[in-house]
Structure formats: structure tokens, C-alpha cells
Automatic annotation (TrEMBL):
Family membership: Belongs to the class-II aminoacyl-tRNA synthetase family. Phe-tRNA synthetase alpha subunit type 1 subfamily.
Gene3D superfamilies: Bira Bifunctional Protein, Domain 2 (3.30.930.10)
Signal peptide: none
Classification lineage: Bacteria, Candidatus Woeseibacteriota
Record EC number: 6.1.1.20
Record's subcellular location: Cytoplasm
Stated name of the protein: Phenylalanine--tRNA ligase alpha subunit
PROSITE patterns per record: AA_TRNA_LIGASE_II
PANTHER family, sorted: PHENYLALANINE--TRNA LIGASE, MITOCHONDRIAL, PHENYLALANYL-TRNA SYNTHETASE
Record's keyword terms, sorted: Aminoacyl-tRNA synthetase, ATP-binding, Cytoplasm, Ligase, Magnesium, Metal-binding, Nucleotide-binding, Protein biosynthesis
Reactions performed catalytically: tRNA(Phe) + L-phenylalanine + ATP = L-phenylalanyl-tRNA(Phe) + AMP + diphosphate + H(+)
GO biological process: phenylalanyl-tRNA aminoacylation
Amino acid sequence: MQEEVINLKNEALAQIMEVSSFEELETIRVTYLGRSGKFTSLIKRIREVSPEKRKQAGLLVNEAKNTIVKALASQKNHLKESARAWFDPTVPGIKPAMGHLHLVTQAIEEISALFTQLGFVRNRYPEVEWDWYAFETLNMPEGHPARDEWETFFVDAPANPKFGQMVLTPHTSSAQVREMQRVKSPPVRMINIAKCYRRQIDASHVPMFHQFEGLVIDKGISVANLKGTLDYFARNFFGPERKTRLRPFHFQFTEPSFEVDVTCGVCLGRGCKLCKNGWLELGGAGMVHPRVLAAGGINPEKYSGYAFGWGVERTYMMKSGLQIPDIRLIYGSDLRFLKQF
Ligand code: PHE
């Protein structure tokens, strides 16, 4: 009997140590100490023990019972404490990881919001495009040397008798004539933000990048309107103290043509190590060439327009003052880099 009592006690204690809920604890209590529990039936059997050993057996069973009662109580307290710790409202919460938009997407959203305020309509056209829209109607006939500047990817597909070869859009200007054809009669006020593709890859070039192209056509549009829009953009995108300037340049599809510069954000035009005498180059612009208007079915005698086209990545880097040693980082998947924006 003595051995039986000790075994039963150890068995119960081992189970009590293992529990993780009040329900399990209660089940153990009933199993051992309940009305038809294991100890209860043991106590009933004390009568069978010989009279001289009976007292000792009684003491032993009682002692075992008390140990179990104490163990149950202390385990119950322990459970209560850990339950309280679980609900401790002062413990810092676990923050779920939150993603955010890619920096280029952020830039695109910001740029389109700005031009939308000015009444531009955001539009997009095919990125697998005909030579016709990418070059021909932009006053760059087949074989024209100016085409070389757009290191174009040609699609390996049969050429169209009218539209020529299929290309990946090397610039967003391919949307100019498409937009004129869509609108048919001015005013035209388009902002086209899209992917561009060129055969180039090094620390400052990627084969796929983004441009945003503005096109405005109406009666009496002049360089003054272009300059006003550019200044508005510079003030709102880069900061109120920033200015733009137009430098003479050449594009086949604009006349006159310009390169647009913005004052350096660090020296504000005074000149420093990060800029060229106070200025940073943004990109191309100009007055839409009469031949381009005509190709889009718009009478150049009646209407005039301006256009500009700049790289999104470049423009965004200028804004943030970001000096990315290798532009390819933007299109890598390294979260240590991307998380910073
Ligand atoms: N398409 C030109 C480029 O890729 C930029 C440009 C757009 C210039 C519109 C003039 C007018 O460099």
C-alpha cells in the first residue's frame, strides 16, 4: 500500500506540473481527489490494512493528499500570473511589417498630382509602339541620323507597310501624335508618364526607365506658357525658391528646342561642387514642330503648342538631393535600399 500511495502521489504531481490551463487542472483534481477519485478509493481500502499498520497508512495517504492539494493551488496561482502577464497593457505591441510604394511610383504619383492641378489629363499609350509614332511623325524620317540618339530596341516582328518596324518606346514623345489623333481638335493638355526603353546599361543608365511628357496645344500657345508651367512645376515639386531656365538645344520635333535647367537645391544658383555653375539639367522641351502638328491632323497655321519630356528617376533624385552611386539600385530588390524612401 505504501508504495502504491507514493506512486499515485508522484503520478499526480507530474501531471500537475505539465498543465497549461485551468480546465486541465480541474480534471486532475477530479481524477485524484474527486468523490470517485483514485485517492478516495485508496482511503476506503485503509480498512483492509492490518490494525497495527493502519494508523501509519492513514498518515501516509493524508500527507500525499495534502501535497497534491498544495501543488494544485500553487499551479493555479502560476497560471493566473502568466495569464495576467499576457494581458499586460504596458508591454509594447508587435508592429506588423508595413510596406510602402516604390520610390518611382511615389514620384509618378506626385508628378501626376501636380499636373492634374493645372488641368493636364494623364494618358498612356502602347509601350510596344510603331516606328511611325516613335520617330517618323516626330520629323525623323527613316535613316535620319537624329534617331541614333534613342538607342532603340526593335521588336523582332514583321514591319507594317505604313507604320514601319515595331519598337519599344524609347521616349514618351511617341504619345504626342497619338494624343492629337485622340483629341482631334485642340485644346490638348496631356501628361503621359510611361516606361521608356533604351539599349544602355551602366551606373547612370538602365535599359528601362520612366519619362513624363507634357503636351499642350491651343490657339496662341507660346514659349511664355512653357516657361510658366516649368516654373510652376519647379516651385511645387522642388521647393518655392527653385527657378528654371531654358537653354537653346536641338530636337527634330520641336522648334525652337530647349534644355531645361533648374537651380541647384544645395547652393540655390550660386554654384557648388554638386552642380554646373548653380544649375542642374532636367531634360528636353520646346515648341511643337509644325510638321508634328500636321502629322497629328492639327493645322499649324491655327494652333501652336509646347512639349517637354524628362526622366522620372533623374527628376526625383534631384528633388531629394539623393546621390545614388549606381542608378541600377533603384530597380534592384534590395530592401535595405528601398526601405529608405
Ligand atoms: N523626347 C525627348 C527625349 O527623350 C525629350 C523631349 C520631349 C524634348 C518633348 C522636347 C519635347 O530626350
